[in-house]
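Re: that chain you flagged

S.,

Sorry for the slow reply, it's been a week of failed gels. I finally had a moment to sit down with the sequence you sent. For the record, here it is as I used it:
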Amino acid sequence: MPLPSVKVVEESRVAVPAAAALPPEPLRLSALDAQWVTLPLIQRVFIFVDGGGAGGEGNIPPFASAVAALRASLAETAARFPTLAGRIVHLPATGDAAVDCAGGGGVRFVVAESGDAAAGRLAGAEDHDAEALRSLAPALDAGQLPAETMAAQVTRLRGGLALGVAMHHAVVDGRSVWRFVEAWAAACRGDADSAEPPTFDRAAIELPGGEDLARVVLRKYAPDLPMAAVAGHFIRPNLSRRTFTIVAQDVQRLKQRIAELSPPEQVAAPPSSFVAIAALSWVSFVHAKHLAGIVSPDDEVYLFFFADCRERLDPPPGHRYFGTCISGCLARATARDLLTGNGLGVAATLVAEEVRRAAEDPLAGWDWRSTVEGVDMDRLVNLAGSTRFPAYEASDFGWGPPGRTELVTMNHDGQVVLVAGKKGGVGAGGVQVSVSLQPAHMDTYKSHLLSYFC
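Prediction finished late last night. Pasting the structure tokens below so you have them in one place:
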């Protein structure tokens, strides 16, 4: 199938209104932010299908009207989230990196069109057209500082439109992304945002060593500042990508099955939805890799994920904190233990232990890049997102929720991305699971994943 062509029609910048109150000084990155300076991209695409196809619920206005509404509401929203309209800058006198909210010039805003990409097909396919999705999201100019923190792209499609966003991971984590999207969508609909205003003070995150620790992190992971090139070894092309929707009833069945399979010494109570889906994803990965001869029973296998620290630090920066505030969690097992009949219960126990550890000691995994050093990436599941992220509920810009939303930057063999499923229709109250794997291993993964629901 030929690749869809996307033509850029216009490129401009959406500036924060002059009356907006911006931080007077650059916001120095915390150590949690600084680890992401060379790993900047979060790219997500929202596919809206005209007439409500593929799960969408509204009628899209004329393209020019939709663009105008998105542009105007972006300016309004960026005034409340100024770190996304700024730049990450290098402060050579101190060795810091910081977000300059006042000197960024606004958010880069791209208008494009594609005559051969069909919104319904992109929204409805289990298999991703990864190249098409990639063409619908902007990249960031982040190879050196000053670096962009956000860009947006609106693309006319056959039968709909796509909204793509790119955000720098040094200024947002997953929770921040969805808070911003929710606020932007509300502004575009003309609804008042009742949420409390975000906070941006990096000093609210108290880590041992304070500002000096952030400089140590920058020297370790970005030693050539202001150069901040993306680490190429994290990019693995030519992977198969698919999305599965686990409906609410099946999530509950899975949780009950895990409770029954849990080791006898564990309390036989159903796990959380996150623990259940994470365990299932991990065990399915190990089965697929074992059948392919990549993983032997004696090999150690891993599941990596992030835990939100906003309410867990002492003192906590709180739920209003807008930035990167996550800690890494790494569950380990011997493949043999996950390949047995009760492997799902074993996996769930190990994941739950990591969740408990992060709650009790949220700083244990703050240096997540050191945590994964030396881990064999061929035996690692890299799980991102959350079963609680309101991907569809938050992204109604006035013409109904998208027919599909996907993370474009899925570059790992073994990457899994979770978001909450759609509120209406198939999958209501369930979980969307997007998976990236070597093509030869995907069918086995799918077969094992779905076997628990047959």
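What I noticed first: The longest helix spans residues 273-291.

Talk soon,
D.
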